[in-house]
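An example makes the point: we let one protein speak, the chain in one-letter code, the fold tokenised, and here it is:
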Amino acid sequence: MDMKGRVSEALKSAMKAQDKERLSTLRLINAAIKDRDIALRGEGNEDGVSDADVLQILGKMVKQRQESARAYEEGGRLELAEQELAEITVIQDFLPKQLGDEEMAEAVDAAVKSTGAESIRDMGRVMGALKAKYTGQMDFGRVGPLVKERLS
């Protein structure tokens, strides 16, 4: 089943279970997917949203919520921070397992080797290869410095 289908099924299950918190987060995910689908169709892409697009959307949603939770914690709004963290948990149910630090380092080494990168100028090629293979599995904000370190 594709990612869109998984989200729809989870939405139906949450409705049946009357799980309000999970349902609201799933509706946000569904709305983001539909927005992206509409945008892609407007650009002439009749296929709509792919699984890679959905993973990208979910990754962005997690990152936004992490930033919001941090801001709420700094502002002393712990109940709002907890709500953001609960939403992250629901979103992460649809993301593949995140790579650990060791696995990330191995992936970076493999990408550097496969692209033939030799200097910092090749960083874009390495990052492109990593994004193509590991979308949703790694935080590219943390990977960037690793790639930079390997290429310098």
User: Anything to note?
Assistant: Residues 101-151 form a domain with the Arc Repressor Mutant, subunit A fold (CATH 1.10.10.410).
